[in-house]
């Protein structure tokens, strides 16, 4: 928040600077869990932003310029600077907007959080997505792998309400979408991935996650 | 000062990433060579999820994944920073680190495979090299600018291990005339003070990786 008095700005430079400061734009896609992560992070931090829905079959020139390497969403544009890759964006957001920290402050806890987010992305996501595209024995194998990896993630809760303790943070943002997707998998692919019996702790974690006021109004939850 | 241990293996580029970071920052440590064909109970305890090296143990607490270890080192010992201080520049560094982590392994696929699969991996490797030369390195001396930074360390596989892979499989990938700037960087990087005194012997690596590839292809 900048409380600058425009009357004391004869050249208009301060006004220009203020208008240029903190202009945040998110290029995303409604179906993308990666874009969802960024929306959650922005919402938790109370950052105002402009959202641009990309048509991935007809990518905008803006997207192609801002993410010329991968041409993918999400892209966060902050004062004309494009930040790419959802977890990189989250760390960027955490560093620029210091209130309501998403990552833990202690370096060792941060290392653990980053490790777990990488694990969730590398090991859980692939397996869950593959349940859509496989059948029979292969599907069983994939579901088993997904469950094992999710169980590993579950153990990271270590008896706490959320990964970081009492409040939601980086790991919830990084992996909360997993539960949304496993629900989709359960409905569409007819396979039970997480349930109250096999993974009661993870199930409870997600129920707690859904009850947090900030989360209820988050995009994608409904 | 808490005790620091680095668990690694001598031919591993991931091990060296951490070793260089420790030396660049002047952090004293004890090195523990792990035998991956016979993993120690300690390693399995420190990295139960992946059972891999490198693992950094600081005051008894283990940290895994080489690039995550580097972020930890930079946060705990800020001298000789590996990351820039500006958040946007840090985001750019992290983007390239992720890029190399995701795309770099295609060179190792070249090493592990043959036929069509290998051909595809060669193609992927060439694309990866082209992208980083053009967009990450540009005209700079190092990826980090005037001095070695996190992206240089992340790309070190290209500087020292790629040659070994090329010789073992008999395919040239990083050709100097095709990637002049990247090629120049490999020389600059390996001549840098701390790096040049801490590189695994290439002849020994050739023997090691030749044997490894033979075993892999035999069991395929």
TrEMBL record, chain A:
Q: What EC number(s) is this enzyme filed under? A: 2.5.1.18
Catalysed reaction(s) here are:
RX + glutathione = an S-substituted glutathione + a halide anion + H(+)
- List, alphabetically, the Pfam families matched: GST_C, GST_N
Q: Can you tell which superkingdom this protein's organism belongs to?
A: Eukaryota
Q: Which residues form the GST N-terminal domain?
A: 22-101
Q: Which InterPro entries match?
A: Glutathione-S-Trfase_C-like (IPR010987), Glutathione-S-Trfase_C_sf (IPR036282), Glutathione_S-Trfase (IPR040079), Glutathione_S-Trfase_N (IPR004045), GST_C (IPR004046), GST_C_Tau (IPR045074), Omega/Tau-like (IPR045073), Thioredoxin-like_sf (IPR036249)
Which family does the record claim for this protein? Answer: Belongs to the GST superfamily.
Protein name as it appears in the record? glutathione transferase
TrEMBL record, chain B:
Listed InterPro entries: Glutathione-S-Trfase_C-like (IPR010987), Glutathione-S-Trfase_C_sf (IPR036282), Glutathione_S-Trfase (IPR040079), Glutathione_S-Trfase_N (IPR004045), GST_C (IPR004046), GST_C_Tau (IPR045074), Omega/Tau-like (IPR045073), Thioredoxin-like_sf (IPR036249)
* Highest taxon listed in the record's lineage: Eukaryota
Spell out where the chain crosses the membrane.
Answer: none
Under CDD domains, the record lists: GST_C_Tau, GST_N_Tau
Which segments constitute the GST C-terminal domain?
86-207
Q: What is its EC number?
A: 2.5.1.18
One Pfam family name from the record?
A: GST_N
**What are the record keywords, sorted?**
Transferase
Question: Which residue intervals define the domain GST N-terminal in the entry?
Answer: 2-81
Reactions catalysed, semicolon-separated, are: RX + glutathione = an S-substituted glutathione + a halide anion + H(+)
- Family designation: Belongs to the GST superfamily.
Name of this protein: glutathione transferase
Taxonomic source organism: Hevea brasiliensis (Para rubber tree)
Organism phylogeny: Eukaryota, Viridiplantae, Streptophyta, Embryophyta, Tracheophyta
